[in-house]
């Protein structure tokens, strides 16, 4: 579905240039010149009361005096006037019926409070006119070369290409345009978003998703607003096309000491990294990589994995490529025995007999080509890098053609590095013509291959079907809220806007989500500590209890393996005295006492969460214990976690091998560890009140996973006035609120709930049990077998945009899906498409009506304005259902479809 009124901006048929001028160097003069030189085919209306003619076009004193036919309006207004005038000009545009506005003027929020006030006035003016869309202000403008549109004041235009470029920096746009003109790089669209008063990055991603000229998007971003919309748009786009992102401002100099380890360890850039990965985007670290990466990802098949084979005629470059690959965490492919035998028959005795495949310096084109073909055919190889170093016998052009021939016979990516100058240039040009990427150095080629691997990994998560983990756990939300309320009423003299919970209260929150904890009791006096230790049983651990002290070990605040009353008494005096000496400012509540956990086979992990300003809550997992901040082995993810996401976090740690069996140690209970991580993510997702959370260490053993220490920081304001559910998350979690128990007319119980990725097997069973006629009526095309990609498309939904309600039934003791009703909203949530499928065995029992009525109820909760459905003309039963519910049936659009619509 098209993005509301963005076509007025990107494909206008008429443009008014407000503030057009003939003054050399002015914005108004440059915009008019660019529109004319860009050969815009529509009507141009310069608007400036000081001129009657500009650049051969009649100039008009105001918008109200444009010579438009009755009922006609201008599509796009480009505003070039001073900032102080813009709000009034926007009002005039709205009164003239102009719904597309580009504001090039500067002098808004970027200059301070006066500019913010003007932006507020513009926003107020625009709200009066429904459907008005604004790009900018403080924008360089936009270009759409396939439409002859250059509505910018840039010094350079662009040639048509297949990459859409979106930038938050106008200055960078100018540099990129100059560089692109020199390199001959083209664009489908080129957009400077400016201050994003209205149109943001997410809007543009959604618009370009349906643009036939755009194969990929390059995004230069300094900050992201409306994170939820960005994540939805990016995840939808990257299912089929790549997004390449350069994020400026990696280091936040303003990061201050926080109340937890996590608060200090999760920076803003970590949140961006987690979000971009979860969105399926590829992040590059050098501006020079942007365009190479965009062309590569749009033109090459994504590899199945990181295993690279290297074919070279020189040992040195092969070693260089291997070093670069291993440094970037790639894998040097291990060639199969069959491939080695084939290469033995092809190559001289002195070849390397392994990977890299050194075909030797005297290799001709045929030897190169056949070696590449063997490598590509190897099941252990995910991609091939071919390196040519010009020798006396080398044939750069002929070898390039041989490599191209081999590459064309395989779906695996082939990258090349033709090293040298004029001797290899002809071969490089042949690669360019054939769409085979070529690089000046092996390191550059390896970097590009790893970007391909990154894209494949990130994209696979969008289609991943998690292994079913039977959580089904009790969530004591009432207990959660009770702890929150009690925490903000405590008056110990050290509570402020953020409530730092005690270790025992923090663990109580974890227990509410069935996260195993080591029981902890607070002792305010030495005598109390001795009594508690006696009750718990020796040995015990004692730790300082203070909301002000994050790193207990740093102040001597931890005593281990206390075996009797005397050792507890001595430890109490020592811990309190050391804490007061090293932190005289700290409020000391006493100590905590807990059982001493002896686990020689255990591994200590660190799990944390922090609510940030852009993407909301972010989770972190890393190697735990006292050295966690020194080793810096950690990974980040956005909640909520699926089983696969939790495993992926663990797998990405350098410490991952330590969780398995090694040196006689049994592996940890990985399933239980994954489940605990998922439970923690549910806690964070359910509780926007949580600002920071630490669990360090989380002890994982072969038999159990238990939180030995925990610290949680709450936001007082959020506890007293809880925000909307899940508003603190960048990704909408599974909508449990749409779970509903019902029954059919014959009494058969049915569970109505939202589909989830784990439903893929049951969804496939539903489809396999449908007749060809049922499939044709639902999908409007015939197919016999489902694929994983097809099934995951229907089972893995962005719940902000699409909801499928499954009717789950019990058939002979096993669960099954009897039918599915699906709602797909447009990105503006103005309109929703509805479709329903009922399995053949369940037809005629009222299930279709049940699904339709429930989906209509959800549509009302979504506050959409219109519901649309397409029905086969021969499906009389379904047509009657729509008609009975007040839908209007339109049979005139096409012979093979009836369109049903209903306004809410």
UniProtKB/TrEMBL annotation:
InterPro entries: Acyl-CoA_Synth/Transferase, Acyl_CoA_acyltransferase, ATP-grasp, ATP_grasp_subdomain_1, CoA-bd, GNAT_dom, Ligase_CoA_dom, NAD(P)-bd_dom_sf. It is an enzyme of class 6 (ligase). Residues 750-904 form the N-acetyltransferase domain. Pfam families: Acetyltransf_1 (PF00583), ATP-grasp_5 (PF13549), CoA_binding_2 (PF13380), Ligase_CoA_2 (PF19045), Succ_CoA_lig (PF13607). Its EC number is 6.2.1.5. Keywords: ATP-binding, Ligase, Nucleotide-binding. Residues 507-543 form the ATP-grasp domain. GO terms for molecular function: acetate-CoA ligase (ADP-forming) activity; acyltransferase activity, transferring groups other than amino-acyl groups; ATP binding; metal ion binding; succinate-CoA ligase (ADP-forming) activity. PROSITE patterns: ATP_GRASP, GNAT. In the N-terminal section; belongs to the acetate CoA ligase alpha subunit family. PANTHER family: 3-HYDROXYPROPIONATE--COA LIGASE [ADP-FORMING], ACETATE--COA LIGASE [ADP-FORMING]. This is Succinyl-CoA ligase [ADP-forming] subunit alpha. It comes from Novipirellula galeiformis.
């Amino acid at each position: 579905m098209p993005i509301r009124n963005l076509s007025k901006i990107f494909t206008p048929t008429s443009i008014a240039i407000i503030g057009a001028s003939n003054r050399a160097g002015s914005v108004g003069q440059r915009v008019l010149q660019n529109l004319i030189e860009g050969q815009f085919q529509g009507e141009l209306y310069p608007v400036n009361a000081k001129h009657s003619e500009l650049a051969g076009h009649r100039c008009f004193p105001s918008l109200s005096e444009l010579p438009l036919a009755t009922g006609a309006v201008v599509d796009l207004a480009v505003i070039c006037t001073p900032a102080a005038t813009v709000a009034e000009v926007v009002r005039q545009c709205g009164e003239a019926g102009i719904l597309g506005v580009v504001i090039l003027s500067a002098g808004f929020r970027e200059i301070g409070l006066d500019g913010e006030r003007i932006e507020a006035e513009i926003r107020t003016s625009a709200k009066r006119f429904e459907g008005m869309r604004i790009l900018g202000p403080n924008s360089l403008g936009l270009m759409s070369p396939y439409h002859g549109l250059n509505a910018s004041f840039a010094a350079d235009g662009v040639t048509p290409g297949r990459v859409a470029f979106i930038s938050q920096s106008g200055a960078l746009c100018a540099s990129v345009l100059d560089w692109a003109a020199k390199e001959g790089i083209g664009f489908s669209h080129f957009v400077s978003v400016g201050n994003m008063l209205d149109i943001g990055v997410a809007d543009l991603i959604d618009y370009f998703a349906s643009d036939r000229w755009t194969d990929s998007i390059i995004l230069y971003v300094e900050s992201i607003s409306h994170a939820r919309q960005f994540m939805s748009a990016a995840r939808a786009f990257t299912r089929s096309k790549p997004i390449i992102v350069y994020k400026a401002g990696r280091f936040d100099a303003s990061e201050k000491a926080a109340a937890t380890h996590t608060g200090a360890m999760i920076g803003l850039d970590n949140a961006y990294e987690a979000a971009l990965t979860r969105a399926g985007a590829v992040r590059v670290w050098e501006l020079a990589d942007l365009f190479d990466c965009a062309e590569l990802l749009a033109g090459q098949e994504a590899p199945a994995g990181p295993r690279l084979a290297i074919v070279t005629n020189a040992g040195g470059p092969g070693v260089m490529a291997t070093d670069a690959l291993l440094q970037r965490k790639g894998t040097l492919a291990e060639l199969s025995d069959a491939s080695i035998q084939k290469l033995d028959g092809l190559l001289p005795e002195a070849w390397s007999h392994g990977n890299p495949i050194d075909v030797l310096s005297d290799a001709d084109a045929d030897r190169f080509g056949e070696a590449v073909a063997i490598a590509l055919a190897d099941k252990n190889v995910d991609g091939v890098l071919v390196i040519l170093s010009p020798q006396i016998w080398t044939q750069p052009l002929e070898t390039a053609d041989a490599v191209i021939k081999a590459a064309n016979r395989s779906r695996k990516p082939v990258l090349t590095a033709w090293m040298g100058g004029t001797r290899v240039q002809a071969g490089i040009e042949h690669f360019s013509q054939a769409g085979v990427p070529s690089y000046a150095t092996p390191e550059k080629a390896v970097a590009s291959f790893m970007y391909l691997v990154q894209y494949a990994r990130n994209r696979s998560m969008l289609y991943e079907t998690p292994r079913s983990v039977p959580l089904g756990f009790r969530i004591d939300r009432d207990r959660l809220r009770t702890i929150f309320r009690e925490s903000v009423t405590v008056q110990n003299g050290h509570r402020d806007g953020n409530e730092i919970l005690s270790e025992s209260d923090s663990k109580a929150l974890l227990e509410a989500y069935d996260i195993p904890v080591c029981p902890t009791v607070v002792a305010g006096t030495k005598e109390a500590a001795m009594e508690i230790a006696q009750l718990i049983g020796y040995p015990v651990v004692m730790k300082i209890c203070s909301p002000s002290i994050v790193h207990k070990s740093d102040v001597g605040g931890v005593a281990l393996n206390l075996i009797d009353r005397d050792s507890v008494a001595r430890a109490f005096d020592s811990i309190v005295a050391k804490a007061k000496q090293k932190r005289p400012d700290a409020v000391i509540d006493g100590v905590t006492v807990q059982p001493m956990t002896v686990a020689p086979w255990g591994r200590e992990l660190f799990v944390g969460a922090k609510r940030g300003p852009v993407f909301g809550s972010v989770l972190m997992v890393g190697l735990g214990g006292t050295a966690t901040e020194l080793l810096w082995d950690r990974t980040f993810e956005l909640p909520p976690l699926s089983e696969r996401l939790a495993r992926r976090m663990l797998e990405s740690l350098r410490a991952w091998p330590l969780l398995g069996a090694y040196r006689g140690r049994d592996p940890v209970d990985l399933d239980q560890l994954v489940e605990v991580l998922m439970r923690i993510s549910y806690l964070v997702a359910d509780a926007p009140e949580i600002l920071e959370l630490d669990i360090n260490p989380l002890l994982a053993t072969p038999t159990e996973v238990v939180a030995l220490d925990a610290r949680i920081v709450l936001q007082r304001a959020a506890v007293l006035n809880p925000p909307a559910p899940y508003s603190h998350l960048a990704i909408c979690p599974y909508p449990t609120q749409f779970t509903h128990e019902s029954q059919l007319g014959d009494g058969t119980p049915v569970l109505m709930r939202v589909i989830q990725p784990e439903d893929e097997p049951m969804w496939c069973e539903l489809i396999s049990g449908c007749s060809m006629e049922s499939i044709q009526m639902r999908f409007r095309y015939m197919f016999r077998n489902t694929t994983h990609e097809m099934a995951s498309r229907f089972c893995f939904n962005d719940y902000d945009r699409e909801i499928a309600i499954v009717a789950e039934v019990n058939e002979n003791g096993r669960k099954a899906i009897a039918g599915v009703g699906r709602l797909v909203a447009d990105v503006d949530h103005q309109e929703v498409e509805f479709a329903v499928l009922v399995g053949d065995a369940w037809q005629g029992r009222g299930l279709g009506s049940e699904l339709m009525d429930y989906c209509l109820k959800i549509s009302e909760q979504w506050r959409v304005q219109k519901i649309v459905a397409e029905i086969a003309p021969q499906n009389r039963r379904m047509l009657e259902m729509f008609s009975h519910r007040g839908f209007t049936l339109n049979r005139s659009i096409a012979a093979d479809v009836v369109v049903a619509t209903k306004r809410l």
